[in-house]
Amino acid sequence: MPRTHLEAGAMPVHGAGASKSDAQTQRCAQARSLLFVPGNRPERFQKAARSGADVVILDLEDSVPAADKGSARTAIAREWAALQACDVPLVVRINASDTAAGEDDLAWLKGLNPRPAAVMVPKAESREALAAVHERLDGIVTLPIIESAAGYAALPSLAAAPGVLRLAVGHIDFMADVGIQCDEQESELAPLRFAVAIATRLNRLAPAVDGVTVQIDDEARLRIDAQRALRFGYGAKLCIHPRQVAMVHQALAPTEPELEWARRVIAADAAAEGAAVQLDGRMVDLPVVLQARRTMARAADSSTVRT
């Protein structure tokens, strides 16, 4: 089974021997919010970097018109050094690697110093193409977006490609590609989200990243979307506006009753020294303890607890 340096249980990257690049990659793996900012809007870069988002994605793809791709690269390069001072991992979303714009992005990225924490690869459909991006960029980890029927079909091989850190769902493009029309709960997309969750687990990747919520001012919709992502086992969500960041963090955090349950399960397990034990009339064994530990880990990753 494919394994990565971020397999569950692996030691975190830190200490005197760890490079800044390694630390940024680790933060990308643990990020809850990944905020897009168009590469041709440099006046928004600092606001995005100081928004509280765990990761900022400087976009060269969908949010940038074809005529502005070159100027977007220039703007990112010009602001790159200043953005380092914000101490937030920076990811660049390139154009599809089999396009002329994507080829230009890859050539340009080779000269960007320091290098980004990761590269987001849109319309991922080929393991070979993902591996080529990883190799060409001297081992930068990738965040492939699954946003087409071909990407869905290729999921097992995409998730196993060298250099993949975590998978992201691009459900808006996926709906357009497949012709799906969703209900309010997006139940038609459950097979896609489930398949990404399974591919993530089988390849021991960092938790998957769910797609954007396009209703920028609808906090209730954003909360519902983020909590659905959590139910599928995802650990993060793509954001398109700074005001979405805090709500995503809050929605992904455990509630106080969930935390209290987790504490009691872990305490009961410790008292039983690993043997099965009953708590509130429910059997507590290893799977239940693991669930409790995941709940505690979610709390550790968040400064917010939901009530």
UniProtKB/TrEMBL annotation:
Domain called HpcH/HpaI aldolase/citrate lyase: residue spans: 32-242
Lyase listed as a keyword: yes
Cofactor requirement: Mg(2+)
GO molecular function: lyase activity
The keyword Metal-binding is assigned to this record: yes
Region (Disordered): 1-24
Top-level taxon: Bacteria
Pfam families: HpcH_HpaI (PF03328)
Keyword entries, A-Z: Lyase, Magnesium, Metal-binding
Protein known as: CoA ester lyase
